[in-house]
Amino acid sequence: MTGTGRISAAVPFPTAARRQLADPQLRANLRRATRTIRNRRSQAVDEVTDWEALRATGAAIKDDVLSRLPELLEEFETRATAAGAHVHWARDAAEACAVVTGLVRATGTDEVVKVKSMATQEIGLNEALAEAGISAVETDLAELIVQLADDTPSHILVPAIHYNRRQIRDILTAGMPAVDASRLTDEPAALAEAARRHLRERFLSARVAVSGANFAVADTGSLVVVESEGNGRMCLTLPDTLISVVGVEKIVPTFADLEVFLQLLPRSATGERMNPYTSIWTGVHPGDGPRNVHIVLLDNGRSDTLADEVGRQALRCIRCSACLNVCPVYEQVGGHAYGSTYPGPIGAILSPLMTGPDSGANRTLPYASTLCGACYDACPVRIDIPQVLVHLRQVGVDARRDRPSLERVALRAASNLIRDRRRYAMALRAARRGAAPLRLLAGSRGTARRLPWPLSAWTTSRDAPLPARQTFREWWAVRAADESAQVAGNPVAGDATHEPEEPR
Amino acid sequence: MRIALFITCVNDLIYPGTGRAVVRILERLGHQVDFPQAQTCCGQLQANTGYRQEALPLVRAFVSAFEPYDVVVAPSGSCVAMVRDGYPRLAAEDSTLSAAVAALAPRTLELSELLVDVLDTTDVGATFEHRVAYHPTCHGLRALRLGDRPRRLLAAVRGLDLVELDEAEQCCGFGGTFALKNPEVSTAMLADKCAAATASGADYLAAADNSCLAHIGGGLARRPGAPRPIHYAEILAGPEEGR
Question: Where is the LUD domain (chain A) (predicted)?
Answer without folding.
Answer: 73-297
